[in-house]
Design a protein that fits this description.
The complex is a heterodimer of chains A (490) and B (1167).
Chain A lengths: L1 E7 H16 L11 E7 L6 H21 L14 E2 L28 H4 L7 H10 L22 H7 L7 H9 L5 E7 L4 H14 L4 H4 L2 E7 L18 H13 L9 E5 L23 H15 L9 E7 L6 E2 L5 H24 L23 H21 L9 E2 L29 H13 L7 H20 L4
Parallel strand pairs in A: 1-2, 1-4, 2-3, 4-5, 5-6, 6-7, 8-9
Chain B lengths: L2 E2 L12 E5 L4 H4 L22 H18 L8 H19 L6 E9 L2 H5 L5 H14 L7 E11 L2 E9 L3 E4 L3 H7 L27 H11 L9 H13 L11 E3 L1 E2 L2 E2 L1 E2 L2 E2 L1 E3 L1 H11 L3 E2 L14 E2 L9 E4 L2 E2 L8 H4 L4 H6 L1 E2 L7 E2 L1 E2 L1 H4 L4 E4 L26 H6 L5 H4 E6 L2 E11 L6 E8 L5 E4 L1 E6 L2 E3 L10 E8 L6 E7 L6 E2 L1 E9 L4 E8 L5 E8 L2 E7 L4 E3 L5 E8 L3 E10 L2 E7 L10 E2 L4 E4 L5 E4 L10 H9 L17 E2 L1 E4 L16 E3 L13 E4 L1 H7 L4 H24 L10 E6 L5 H19 L7 E5 L3 H9 L8 E6 L4 E7 L8 E9 L4 H4 L12 H13 L1 H12 L5 H10 L7 H5 L5 H21 L6 E5 L4 H6 L3 H16 L8 E2 L5 H19 L19 E6 ...
The chains are: A alpha/beta (490), B alpha+beta (1167).
C-alpha cells in the first residue's frame, strides 16, 4: 500500500516534519507490512526554512532507516523508523534506493511575478480589466497581480489556484500520475488560511479528480486542512496578517462547501486551535521562515496516520473528522488527550523520547558498559559508521528539540509540554505529568538501571546483526522497558 | 467536555481523538468573529479560484445574514464591511447608475467552450489563467459561462474600475478602486443618508440606509424566480426586514433602467436599476427643509423649487430625505458650479455632500458676484433717483447676478440684500428664506465682504436714452434705447461688455455695441449699444486678472403711457439754426406755444451719477452734471454733450444748450467712410455742442444740412446726416411728449415742418420724405403723417395773428431771414375773395445770412470776411484770453466762416458784436443787406399792385442783425418807412409799424404751430393734405399762398416771361435790365442826402454816401466790371442753366459784393 502524502506550503512541510517524528517513533500505522509512504513537498518557495528542514529530516529518516533498520524491514515491525518511505521520483520498485530521498516536487523557483507568469501584458484590455477587478494590482501594498511567486503565494489562493494548474504540466507529476495504482491512496496536507496550501489543495484535488488515470481520479483521498492555530507578529508592511486568518478561513470554508471536488474527499480532517495568545516572528518566506513546531501540526500528522489506518470500506462515503482532547488548557500536556490518542501516538513518541535521551545523554557516559566497547557496538567508534551515527544523534537531538523545546514555546499560542530532557542522570522526569515514582528502595530510571537494561538487551541480540541495527534495537527495547516502568501515560 | 480543535461552532461535541463529524457549512462559521475590520477590499483572496472575490462577497452576505437573524451582528466586522461595500455600490448605482458622465459599463464573458478558450491560447500563462477560470466556470451558478459587467466610475476626466456584477451579490467591488480613487483625487462619494460616505470604513447595514433604497434592495432580493445563488443576499435582506420591519415601510421608489449599450444592466436576468430622476427629485422636494421660499411675484415657475444651500451652513434640517440631514460641515465648491445657467441648475446639480444626487439648488455664489465694482472717481455716486440703490450715496454697482432677480423681483431687492460698513469695508448680506416640512420657514444668512483684490474700480460711466419705459402695448416700439458707455482706456480693469437683461434675470436683450471714439489724448473711449427692446438690468463685465467680473446696474425708468393730450410740434429746420416750438391743443386751440425745453423734471437721458445740487451767482439752484462726475471721468460730460445729447435744454444752468440751436450734426470719424453708417449716436448725432465744444480737432461737425441734398440729392452720406438729425429730433419730441405732465397721445401728435419758398419742390419733398421715414420709425407707422409743411415766411403770420387777429385785415409783410434764404410774405387785402381767405404773395431768395457772414467763394477762408478778419485782430488785442480760448475755431480750415460767426455770436463773452461799435463802418454791410431786401419788397408790391404793408415783422435767426444796426425800434421803423417810400415811390400808411419780435428765429416755428392747429380746427379728419379749407365756420382767415418770383428786372415786362438761368448769361438785355435795377437800388439808397445824413448820425458812420463808390465806382461800366458784375457772374454760374428761374437774380449782383465790402472796410480799419 502506497500513500502519497502531499505537504503543501509551509504548514504542509511542518506537518510532514511531525509525521516524520511519528514514523521515527516506530508507530504502527496499519496492519499492512508493506506500507510505503511517498512524501511530496509542494511549495513554490524552494528556499523556505520550514520546507528545507522537513526535507532534510525526511532524508535523514530515509538514511537512518536504511542504516539502522534495513531497507526491507516491514512497516509493521516493532522498531523505530519502521515505515518505509520512497521517493516519488523512484516509484518503480526496481529502481535503486541508494540515492537520497527526493521529496520536493519540482514546482518551484517561480522567480517571477504572477502578472508575468500569466503573461498579463499580452492579454486583451478587457481581460486585463477583469484581472484588475479580481486582483490587487498595487506594487507595494499587499500585491497580488505583481506578487513575486518566489516566496509562495503569501496567502493568496486566488493566485495559487491559477499557478497550481501548472502542476499538471510538470513531468514529475505526470510520472506520478502514470504510476498510480488502484491500491494507492493520497493524503493532502494544507493550511486554509495561508496561500500556498489553501490554493494548492483544491487545485490538486481537481487535478487528481480530473486525471486521465482512473486509478488516480477515483483514489481515496484524505486531507487535513489546518485552520488558524497561531498568530504572527503584526507588521504593517507584511503580507501575512494573522488578524485576517479567521476571515480567510471562513471564506475558504464557504467555498469548499460548494466545491464538488472538495466534497469528494473521502476523509476530510479539520483542525484548528484558535484564539490563543502569543505570536510568532513574522517572516514572509524564504530561509528565515523557520518556525517552531506546534502541537497542531503534530495532531495534523496523526490525521495521516488515522487516514492510513482506515480500511477501504471505511472510506466509501466522504466523511469529515474532527479531533478532540479530554480537556483544553494552556499549556497542554499529554494527560489532556484521550486514551486512544495517548496510546496510539504518544506512547511511541514517549519511547522515542527515552531512546533519544539515552542515546544523546546517557550512553556517552557508559563507557564502562559492555555494549559500549569496541568489540560490541564500538560506541566510541561510532558503530563504525560515524556519519550515520552522527546523523542519528542529530535526529534524536532534533526530536528532543521538536518535542521538548519547540512545541512548548509559549509563543505558539498553545504550548504543549510533552517531554523533559533536562536531567542528566535519570529518566524519571522525562514525561511531563508523569514522573516515575522513586523511593528509598526504588530510585526509578537511573542511569545505572538503564545501563543495565541496555547491556542486557544488547547482549541478547543476534550476534550477526549489524552493529547499527543492534544499536537501534537496543535502544528500542530499553525504551519499551522504560515505558513499562512508567506505566500508564499521564 | 472534550476540547475540540476546531475553528467553527460545530454541533457535534462528543469528539475524542479523530472522530467523524459534520462537514463545515457556511452556517457554522457565521458566528466566528473576525479579528479585524480593515483590508476589506483586499480580503477576497482566500478562496482558491481566480474569481475568489465573488465568493468572498457571497460569504459575507451569508455570514452577516445569519448574524442579523441571530442578532449577533458585529457592526465593524470585515463581513459587515463587505456587505456594506456591496450595498454602497448598489446605492451608488441606484442614485445615478444611468448617468453616463459617472458610469461606464463593459460586459465580459468567459465561455467554457473551445471558442471561449481560444482567445487565451496565445501564451502558456494565458492558458493557465483560462484554466483557473474554467475551473470557476464549471461551478454553479456559472454553468460554463462567467458573465460579468465591469462597472467603471468617473469623476471628471478620471475613471476607475469600481467593481463588477456578481451572480451572488449582484455587485462586488474591485480590490483596487479605493487606492486608485485616492491616487486620482476622486471626490468623496456620499451616500443617501446623512453624512454617509460610501466605500469608507464606517459600515452601514441595510436597515440604516435611506428608506426608498431599502425598499429597492428588498425588491431586488425578492425578485420572483431569483437564482439560488443569491440566497445569501436574499436572506440578508429578508432577515433585515424581519429584524427591522419599520424600516421597510416607505413607498417603493419608481425606477429607471441603467443602459449598457442596447440592453439594461442586469445580473442573472434581474435588472439593476436606479431611482427615476423624477421620483428622486420629488422625494427631495417633499422632504427638504432647504427649499427656497419665493415671493408670490417671483419670476420663477419651475416645477421643482430649488434648494438654497451655503457652504458649511450651520442650519440643521432634512436635506434630501427623512434619513438625510444637512451636514453642517458640508463644503460647496463654487468652482464646481459657478457657471451654471438656470437651465443647467433646474436640470439638476449634484447636491453638495452627496454623490450624483441631482436636484436644483442655489448657493450664495449663484447670487453674489465674485467681485465688487466700485466707482473710482471721487464724488461719483449712483443717481438714486434713476437707479436702484441699496444704500444712500452708493458708490458701487450691485454685486448680484441677474439670476437672483429671477427668483426675487427687483422691487424687493432691499428685503433680501443689505449693506453695511464693517471696519471700513462694505459687507453685503443676503437673507434668503427657506422652508421645509420639519423646520418651516427660516432664513439663510450669507455675508460677503470683498477684499481689495476682489474689487474692480470702474473708471467709466453709462448713459441711457431715452430714460423711459412703457408697458403700454401700443407704445412698445418706444422701448428702444441707446446706452452710451464712456470708459477710461487706461483703466486697471477695462470694461469688457455690457449685457442687458429683462427683469426676469434670464432673458437677454441684444445690445449691439459700436465704439465711436477712442480719444487717446483724454484716454477716453465711447461705445454705444443699441437695443430694440425694453431691458431692466445692465450687467457690466470687466476683465480683472484675466478673468471676468460683473455687477449690475438697475435703471428706474420713467414709466410712460400713451396719454390723451394733443400736442403739436413745429420744427423750423433752418439753414443755420433749428428751432422747435410745441403746444398743447385744447378744444381745438393751441393753449400755449413754447420752445422745446428739457427741464430737470423731464430729463430724457441720465448718466449713472448723482448730480450735485449747485447754485449760480444769481442764486438759481440747479443740478450740476459735470462736476459731480469727479475728476477721473470728467471727460464723460463732454462726450455726452458732444456725441449723445444734452442733459437739459433751455434756460438752465445744467447745460448751455437751448433752442434754437445750430443746425449741425456731430459725426464720428468713421461716419463718412461707409454709407451704411447711419446709426444714431454711433455714427452721428445732432451737434448740440458745436458752439461750445472746446475741441475742434478730431471732432467733425457738419452744418448746412438743409441744402446738402440740393447739390447731391442721392448722396447717401448727406441723406444719413439729415436722417439722423431728424431721428434724434423726433426721438426727443416723442420722449418729451410722453414725459409731459399731460402725456401725449402719440397717435394724434402733430408735427409740422416749415420750408422756405425758395426751396425747390424736389428738395422739399426729399426732406419731408426723410423726416417722415423717421417719423414712422419713431412714432410708429400708425401715427399721423407729418402735417403739410408751412412756408417759412408765412408762418409768422399765424403767430402774429394769434396775438392780434386784426392783422388779417391789413396788409402784412414778414421778412424771414435765415442763414441761406430770405422768405417774404406779403398779404393782399384788396379785392373780393372768400371771407376766410387772405391772399398772399410769397417770395424767397438766397440772399440771407450767408451774404453777410460767409467768406464768399472760399467758404473756409474766414479772413475773406472783413468783419471776421477784423474781429480776430480786435479780440487778440483787447482780450487775448478769449482769443486763445477760441483760437482753434478762428483758425480752423474745416469750419465754414458763417459757422465761425455763428459760434462767435453764441456767447457774449466772445464780444463779436463789439466789432460794430468799435468800427461802425462795418454797419454799412448789414445796412445795405437790409436795404436790398426792402428794395425788393417795394418793387414786388409795385409790380403786383399791392399796397405797401401796414405791418412788418421779422423772423429767422438771420434777422437778428437788424437789431444789431438798429437797436432802437423807432430808428428801424423810421429807416424802413423811408426806404419803402423811396423804393416804391408811394407813401406807406402813417400807422406803419414793425412788430417787436424778441426772438425772431422762434416766430417761424410758433407760426407753424398755429398754422398746423388751424388745420386741425378746420378739418378734424384731415389727412394733413393741402390745407385747403372747406366748410369753414371760423372767422379767422387762412393765408392762400401765391408763389411769385419777382426776378428784379428794371423793366416790368420782362417779369412776365418764363426764363431759365442760362438766358441770363446769353441774353444781354436781361442782364442789363437786372444790373440797371441794382444800379437803381444803389442810387436811390445813396441818393437821398437826408437819409444818408440820418444814417451817418444814427449809425455813427462817417460818410455813408461814399460807399456808393464801392458798388458804382465813377467812370466804370457796371455791366462789364466791378464788384457787382463779378458777383453776378459767379452767382449765375452756380445755377443750372436749364433750370427755370426761381431764385430772383436781382440779388446775384449782391451775392459776394457785401463780403467784399466788408473786406474793403476791414482793410482800411485801424485798431
Amino acid at each position: 500500500m502506497r500513500v502519497f502524502i502531499f505537504g503543501i506550503g509551509g504548514t504542509g512541510a511542518k506537518v510532514l516534519r511531525s509525521l516524520t517524528m511519528l514514523l521515527a517513533s516506530g508507530i504502527r500505522i496499519n496492519d499492512s507490512s508493506d506500507l510505503t509512504l511517498v512524501p511530496i513537498i509542494v511549495d513554490t518557495d524552494a528556499h523556505n526554512g520550514n520546507t528545507a528542514r522537513t526535507r532534510d529530516l525526511l532524508r535523514s529518516y530515509y538514511t537512518l532507516r536504511r542504516t539502522f533498520v534495513g531497507a526491507q524491514a516491514a512497516s509493521d515491525a516493532p522498531s523505530f523508523f519502521n515505515t518505509q518511505l520512497r521517493s516519488f521520483n523512484r516509484l518503480d520498485a526496481t529502481s535503486s534506493d541508494a540515492a537520497d530521498l527526493d521529496v520536493q516536487l519540482n514546482f518551484q523557483n517561480q522567480d517571477d511575478t504572477f502578472a508575468n507568469f500569466i503573461h498579463y501584458h499580452g492579454l486583451e484590455q478587457q481581460d486585463k480589466d477583469v484581472l484588475e477587478l479580481l486582483y490587487n494590482d498595487s506594487l507595494d501594498e499587499a500585491p497580488e497581480l505583481h506578487l513575486n511567486l518566489n516566496v509562495g503565494f503569501k496567502g493568496n489562493p486566488n493566485i495559487g489556484s491559477v499557478v497550481f494548474n501548472d502542476l499538471k504540466n510538470q513531468q514529475q507529476f505526470k510520472n506520478l500520475e502514470s504510476s498510480f495504482t488502484a491500491t494507492d491512496r493520497v493524503f493532502i496536507i494544507s493550511s486554509i488560511f495561508g496561500g500556498t496550501g489553501a490554493s494548492g489543495f483544491p487545485t490538486l484535488v481537481k487535478l487528481i479528480r480530473e486525471s486521465d488515470n482512473a486509478n488516480l481520479a477515483t483514489t481515496k483521498i484524505g486531507a487535513v486542512t489546518v485552520m488558524p492555530y497561531f498568530n504572527v507578529d503584526a507588521e504593517e508592511t507584511s503580507r501575512i496578517q494573522s488578524a485576517i486568518f479567521d476571515t480567510k478561513t471562513k471564506s475558504a470554508l464557504s467555498f469548499y462547501a460548494g466545491d464538488q471536488h472538495m466534497n469528494s474527499i473521502q476523509a476530510m480532517y479539520y483542525l484548528a486551535d484558535k484564539d490563543q495568545g502569543g505570536s510568532l516572528r513574522n517572516v514572509e518566506g524564504g530561509p528565515d521562515q523557520l518556525t517552531d513546531a506546534h502541537l497542531v501540526e503534530f495532531l495534523a500528522a496523526t490525521a495521516i496516520v488515522d487516514f492510513i489506518g482506515k480500511k477501504d470500506d471505511e472510506l466509501l462515503v466522504p466523511q469529515c473528522y474532527e479531533f478532540g482532547a479530554e480537556s483544553g488548557g494552556n499549556p497542554l500536556t499529554i494527560g489532556a488527550f484521550a486514551e486512544h490518542t495517548k496510546q496510539r501516538y504518544f506512547r511511541p513518541l514517549a519511547a522515542f523520547a527515552y531512546a533519544a535521551k539515552m542515546a544523546t545523554d546517557l550512553i556517552p557516559h557508559m563507557r564502562a558498559e559492555a555494549f559500549y566497547n569496541g568489540k560490541e557496538l564500538n560506541i566510541d567508534g561510532k558503530l563504525g559508521v560515524p556519519s550515520e551515527y552522527q546523523k542519528l544523534l542529530q535526529f534524536f537531538a532534533e526530536f528532543q528539540k521538536w518535542s521538548g523545546t519547540e512545541m512548548s514555546n509559549k509563543d505558539n499560542g498553545r504550548a504543549f509540554l510533552s517531554f523533559y530532557y533536562g536531567d542528566r542522570d535519570h529518566l524519571n522526569q522525562l514525561l511531563h505529568g508523569k514522573p516515575i515514582p522513586t523511593g528509598f528502595f526504588n530510585k526509578g530510571l537511573t542511569q545505572a538501571k538503564v545501563a543495565g537494561w541496555l547491556t542486557k538487551n544488547e547482549d541478547g541480540l543476534p550476534k550477526d546483526r549489524r552493529k547499527t541495527e543492534k544499536y537501534l534495537d537496543m535502544l528500542y527495547m530499553t525504551a519499551q522497558q522504560c515505558l513499562a516502568e512508567l506505566g500508564q501515560l499521564p | 467536555m472534550p476540547h475540540i480543535f476546531r475553528f467553527h461552532n460545530g454541533t457535534n461535541n462528543n469528539i475524542y481523538d479523530w472522530t467523524a463529524s459534520d462537514r463545515i457549512t457556511p452556517g457554522m462559521i457565521r458566528n466566528v468573529l473576525d479579528k479585524t475590520n480593515v483590508l476589506s477590499s483586499a480580503a477576497g483572496t482566500s478562496i482558491p479560484t481566480p474569481i475568489a472575490r465573488l465568493f468572498l462577497f457571497r460569504t459575507a452576505f451569508e455570514i452577516v445574514a445569519g448574524q442579523v437573524r441571530e442578532q449577533t451582528a458585529v457592526a465593524n466586522s470585515i463581513y459587515a464591511g463587505l456587505v456594506s461595500e456591496t450595498l454602497d455600490l448598489l446605492e451608488l448605482l441606484y442614485q445615478c447608475g444611468a448617468d453616463s458622465s459617472r458610469f461606464r459599463y463593459e460586459r465580459w464573458v468567459f465561455e467554457n467552450t473551445d471558442e471561449g478558450l481560444r482567445r487565451f491560447q496565445g501564451r502558456p500563462g494565458h492558458r493557465l489563467f483560462a484554466q483557473g477560470l474554467k475551473q470557476a466556470a464549471a461551478q454553479a451558478p456559472f454553468n460554463g459561462r462567467i458573465d460579468l459587467t465591469l462597472i467603471f466610475f468617473r469623476d471628471g476626466a478620471n475613471e476607475v474600475l469600481l467593481g463588477g456584477t456578481s451572480p451572488f451579490t449582484f455587485v462586488f467591488t474591485s480590490p483596487n478602486f479605493k487606492r486608485k480613487m485616492k491616487l486620482l483625487k476622486f471626490g468623496r462619494v456620499s451616500g443617501l443618508v446623512s453624512g454617509d460616505v460610501l466605500f469608507d470604513n464606517s459600515y452601514l447595514p441595510l436597515e440604516q440606509r435611506e428608506d426608498a433604497f431599502i425598499r429597492y434592495i428588498e425588491g431586488l432580493a425578492s425578485t420572483p424566480g431569483i437564482s439560488a445563488s443569491f440566497s445569501g443576499f436574499s436572506e440578508y435582506a429578508a432577515n433585515c426586514k424581519t429584524r427591522f420591519p419599520l424600516r421597510f415601510t416607505a413607498q417603493p421608489p419608481a425606477l429607471q433602467d441603467i443602459r449598457v449599450g442596447d440592453t439594461a444592466l442586469q445580473v442573472g436576468q434581474i435588472p439593476l436599476r436606479q431611482i427615476s430622476q423624477a421620483d428622486h427629485r420629488q422625494r427631495i422636494a417633499d422632504h427638504s427643509d432647504f427649499k427656497l421660499r419665493l415671493p408670490a411675484d417671483t419670476h420663477f415657475s419651475g416645477a421643482l423649487t430649488p434648494l438654497f444651500l451655503v457652504s458649511k451652513m450651520t442650519l440643521d434640517g432634512q436635506y434630501t430625505s427623512p434619513s438625510n440631514n444637512w451636514q453642517p460641515g458640508t463644503l460647496i465648491s463654487e468652482a464646481a458650479y459657478h457657471a451654471d445657467s438656470l437651465a443647467e441648475i433646474m436640470e439638476g446639480r449634484d447636491l453638495p455632500g452627496l454623490s450624483a444626487v441631482r436636484y436644483p439648488f442655489l448657493s450664495a455664489f449663484d447670487f453674489f458676484e465674485r467681485a465688487l465694482v466700485r466707482f473710482k472717481s471721487p464724488g461719483y455716486q449712483l443717481n438714486d433717483q434713476r437707479f436702484v440703490t441699496v444704500i444712500d450715496h452708493q458708490t458701487f454697482a450691485i454685486p448680484l447676478k441677474p439670476l437672483f432677480f429671477h427668483f426675487f423681483p427687483i422691487h424687493r431687492l432691499k428685503e433680501y440684500l443689505t449693506v453695511e460698513l464693517v471696519e471700513g469695508r462694505l459687507s453685503f448680506t443676503l437673507r434668503i428664506p427657506v422652508f421645509g416640512p420639519t423646520k418651516q420657514l427660516r432664513t439663510v444668512v450669507c455675508h460677503k465682504v470683498y477684499s481689495d483684490i476682489e474689487t474692480v474700480n470702474y473708471s467709466g460711466i453709462m448713459g441711457i436714452f431715452p430714460f423711459t419705459r412703457t408697458d403700454d402695448a401700443s407704445l412698445a416700439f418706444t422701448n428702444q434705447y441707446t446706452v452710451a458707455s464712456y470708459e477710461k482706456t487706461n483703466a486697471d480693469a477695462p470694461l469688457k461688455s455690457l449685457t442687458f437683461y429683462r427683469e426676469d434675470g434670464l432673458e437677454k436683450i441684444k445690445g449691439i455695441p459700436a465704439q465711436r471714439t477712442n480719444d487717446t489724448d483724454i484716454n477716453t473711449s465711447s461705445t454705444y449699444y443699441q437695443l430694440n427692446h425694453a431691458f431692466d438690468m445692465i450687467q457690466l463685465t470687466f476683465i480683472k486678472d484675466n478673468s471676468s467680473a460683473s455687477a449690475l446696474i438697475i435703471p428706474k425708468f420713467q414709466v410712460v403711457r400713451n396719454g390723451d393730450a394733443t400736442y403739436v410740434y413745429a420744427i423750423d429746420f433752418g439753414t443755420s439754426n433749428t428751432h422747435i416750438e410745441y403746444g398743447l391743443v385744447s378744444d381745438g386751440k393751441l393753449t400755449q406755444s413754447q420752445p422745446f425745453e428739457i427741464g430737470e423734471e423731464q430729463m430724457q437721458m441720465y448718466l449713472l451719477h448723482q448730480p450735485a445740487r449747485a447754485s449760480r451767482f444769481e442764486g438759481e439752484q440747479f443740478l450740476d452734471y459735470e462736476k459731480s462726475l469727479g475728476g477721473v471721468i470728467d471727460k464723460a460730460w463732454q462726450l455726452t454733450m458732444r456725441e449723445f445729447l444734452p442733459f437739459q435744454i433751455g434756460p438752465y444752468a445744467a447745460t448751455p444748450v437751448r433752442f434754437p440751436f445750430r443746425t449741425a450734426t456731430c459725426e464720428s470719424t468713421a461716419f463718412i467712410s461707409n454709407p451704411a453708417n447711419d446709426r444714431l449716436f454711433v455714427d452721428a448725432n445732432i451737434g448740440f455742442y458745436m458752439d461750445y465744444d472746446p475741441a475742434v480737432t478730431n471732432v467733425r461737425y457738419k452744418t448746412d444740412l438743409k441744402w446738402l441734398l440740393q447739390q447731391a440729392g442721392n448722396d447717401p452720406l448727406h441723406i444719413n446726416r439729415v436722417k439722423l438729425f431728424a431721428r434724434q429730433l423726433l426721438l426727443m419730441i416723442r420722449t418729451k411728449a410722453l414725459l409731459s405732465p399731460q402725456p401725449a397721445d402719440l397717435q394724434r401728435l402733430k408735427i409740422v415742418l416749415s420750408f422756405p419758398i425758395s426751396m425747390g419742390e424736389t428738395l422739399k419733398q426729399r426732406l419731408i420724405g426723410l423726416f417722415d421715414d423717421q417719423r414712422k420709425e419713431v412714432f410708429g407707422a400708425d401715427a399721423r403723417p407729418l402735417a403739410s409743411p408751412v412756408t417759412e415766411s408765412i408762418a409768422p403770420y399765424y403767430q402774429l395773428k394769434s396775438q392780434n387777429i386784426k392783422i388779417q385785415n391789413d396788409n402784412f409783410c414778414n421778412i424771414d431771414i435765415g442763414g441761406g434764404t430770405t422768405d417774404i410774405v406779403l398779404t393782399r387785402t384788396e379785392g373780393n375773395g372768400p371771407v376766410n381767405e387772405l391772399q398772399c404773395y410769397c417770395a424767397s431768395f438766397r440772399f440771407a445770412g450767408r451774404q453777410l457772414w460767409s467768406s464768399g467763394g472760399n467758404e473756409y477762408h474766414s479772413d475773406d470776411n472783413g468783419i471776421v478778419a477784423y474781429y480776430k485782430k480786435f479780440i487778440y488785442q483787447v482780450d487775448p484770453a478769449v482769443y486763445n480760448r477760441i483760437r482753434h475755431q478762428l483758425e480752423s480750415k474745416t469750419v465754414k466762416t458763417e459757422d465761425i460767426v455763428g459760434y462767435l455770436f453764441s456767447d457774449p463773452k466772445f464780444r463779436f458784436k463789439d466789432v460794430f461799435s468799435e468800427h461802425p463802418a462795418f454797419r454799412v454791410v448789414p445796412l445795405v443787406h437790409y436795404a436790398a431786401i426792402i428794395f425788393y419788397i417795394s418793387r414786388l408790391a409795385v409790380w403786383q399792385g399791392i399796397a405797401l404793408p401796414r405791418t412788418l415783422s421779422f423772423s429767422g435767426k438771420g434777422s437778428e442783425y437788424i437789431r444789431l444796426i438798429f437797436p432802437d425800434a423807432q430808428d428801424l421803423r423810421g429807416f424802413t418807412f423811408r426806404l419803402l417810400s423811396i423804393f416804391s415811390g408811394a407813401q406807406p400808411r402813417p400807422d406803419f409799424m414793425i412788430e417787436n419780435v424778441p426772438e425772431p428765429k422762434v416766430i417761424t416755428a410758433k407760426g407753424a404751430l398755429y398754422y398746423a392747429v388751424e388745420d386741425v380746427t378746420d378739418a378734424p379728419s384731415d389727412d394733413w393734405g393741402s390745407g385747403t379749407t372747406t366748410g369753414i365756420v371760423s372767422r379767422e382767415k387762412k393765408l392762400i399762398k401765391n408763389n411769385v418770383v419777382y426776378k428784379g428786372f428794371a423793366e416790368p415786362a420782362l417779369e412776365e416771361k418764363a426764363l431759365n438761368y442760362g438766358e441770363l448769361s446769353t441774353n444781354a438785355a436781361l442782364y442789363r435790365s437786372l444790373m440797371d435795377n441794382v444800379q437803381h437800388f444803389f442810387e436811390q439808397l445813396f441818393g437821398q442826402p437826408e437819409l444818408v445824413q440820418a444814417i451817418n448820425k444814427k449809425l455813427e458812420i462817417n460818410n455813408f454816401g461814399e460807399y456808393k463808390q464801392f458798388f458804382l465806382p465813377d467812370g466804370t461800366d457796371i455791366y462789364t466790371s466791378g464788384v457787382l458784375r463779378d458777383s453776378f457772374k459767379a452767382a449765375v454760374l452756380q445755377q443750372n442753366p436749364a433750370d427755370q428761374i426761381s431764385d430772383p437774380p436781382f440779388f446775384f449782383a449782391l451775392d459776394y459784393a457785401l463780403i467784399n465790402l466788408s473786406k474793403a472796410i476791414a482793410e482800411q480799419a485801424t485798431l
